Amino acid sequence: MLKQLKRLGGDSLLYALMNVGTKLIAFLMLPIYTTYLNPSEMGAFELIESIVSILTFVIIFGTDNALAYYFYKEKEEKDKEQFFKTALSFRLVIAMVFFLIFIVMGPYFAEVFLGSRDYYSVVLIAGTVLISEAVITLLLTFDRFNFKSKKVAGLTVFKLLLVALSSYVLLKFLNLKVESIYIGRLISGLVVLVFLIRPLFNFLSFKFRKDQLIKLLRYGAPLVPASIAFWIITFSNRIFLSMFESLESVGIFGVAIKFATVITLLTSSVQMAWRPYSMSIKDQPNAKKIYANIFYIILIIGMLGLISIASLAPFLLKFMVPDMIYMEAANYIAMLSLGSFLSFYYLIVSVGLFLEEKTAVISIYVGISAVVSVILNISLIPLFSIWGAVLALVISYVLVNVLIFIKSQSVYYIPVSLKKLLIPFIGGVISTGSIVIIYMYNFNSYYIFISWIFFFIVLLLTGFGKTVLNFTRGR
């Protein structure tokens, strides 16, 4: 038992470090991208990325979760491997279909959405990357299920480092612009496949068992709508910005949101730990009080983080991105960080749905919020430009949290005061927004201290110190 716990702890720590490492490397590439790409080119990159991300969801089609289920359910090793062969064949077929669509429709897509057929080559390279990623992801998933965590983490970080290096070389010396990023990804993917050549030949087969494919799709397909809905909330704003504004606006928005997602360096580790922790204490007599305190404490930490980001965003952006053409992005970083935090916080307040096995409603509520997101983007972007996209993102995630919290409370009541959550949340948003306005209109920087003082007064009114004390004492 102790051996298993040690392995679980070691693997969890390794994957957490891998997750943080990959996000950090991606973030540190931002100064390079913004040095060699103008806002319009950054906008094209962001737009292509948004399309690639949704196609990745479709290619996987929930089979990753299905593989996890059937891998540990099957007893025979050959049956486990056959499930992966079937999944790989399915993913490759879908990826190749998309690649053919890119070949045929690429010029039209490049002209309509990217403003020039010159981006057709980038679209084709991105389609090739989709195919290589479909293979690599599945092979690494097989190793992860076999507890080869060091291999998975090592190859993942190595791959991203190789992307960074090759992209930099191509940008600096060949001036290939957006193509450099996707050529870099393709090169890194091919190199990683060399290390995975043995399992690749073992799994590569376009023959698959129909019964296994049906099982995989039946298990995984219900998870796809939620993934697509989250994509709509998080990524569709780039498409609407390109339609109603310009690629330059998409580029500025993309730089801002890359800074905003840095907050996930902290939330991702909490997210990984929360599910097992919340399940492990569910039978304790004071479990509900612990959940209530955690709701409040994580919210307060999140708000403090947002106010800190708002205070430091202009300086961090100027340090990371010296080109003044991108400085407008500083206006949006804090509020986009709020969206990133809320995209994580719903997982905390949904604990009751997981405990009572009522998670199916999450997809419904995320779907409703996705529809609202589309309406808000269409309505707000023509009126408020980039701020419209920011507001659409934040409001949609607020709605996700409210709907899921209310439903979770109805099936598993946790004694947390709604007022105790709302007051610091609203206070944090007011403080964050006021700091953003202070920087936008060049007011005296001393007013920032007033925003901080205001929030600390809010904390005192909601009894933050007492809550932390009770939590540390296990009450």
Automatic annotation (TrEMBL):
Q: How does it sit in the membrane?
A: Multi-pass membrane protein
Keyword vocabulary terms for this entry = Cell membrane, Membrane, Transmembrane, Transmembrane helix
Native species of this protein?
Metabacillus herbersteinensis
Q: Where does the UniProt entry say this protein principally localizes?
A: membrane
What residue intervals traverse the membrane? 12-30, 50-72, 92-110, 122-140, 152-171, 183-204, 216-240, 252-274, 294-317, 329-348, 360-380, 386-406, 418-440, 446-469
What PANTHER family does its record include? O-ANTIGEN TRANSPORTER-RELATED (PTHR30250:SF11), PST FAMILY PREDICTED COLANIC ACID TRANSPORTER (PTHR30250)
Q: Which InterPro entries match?
A: Poly_Biosynth_Transport, Polysacc_synth
Its annotated compartments are: Cell membrane
Segments forming a coiled coil: none
Q: What is this protein called?
A: Oligosaccharide flippase family protein
Q: Where is the signal peptide?
A: none
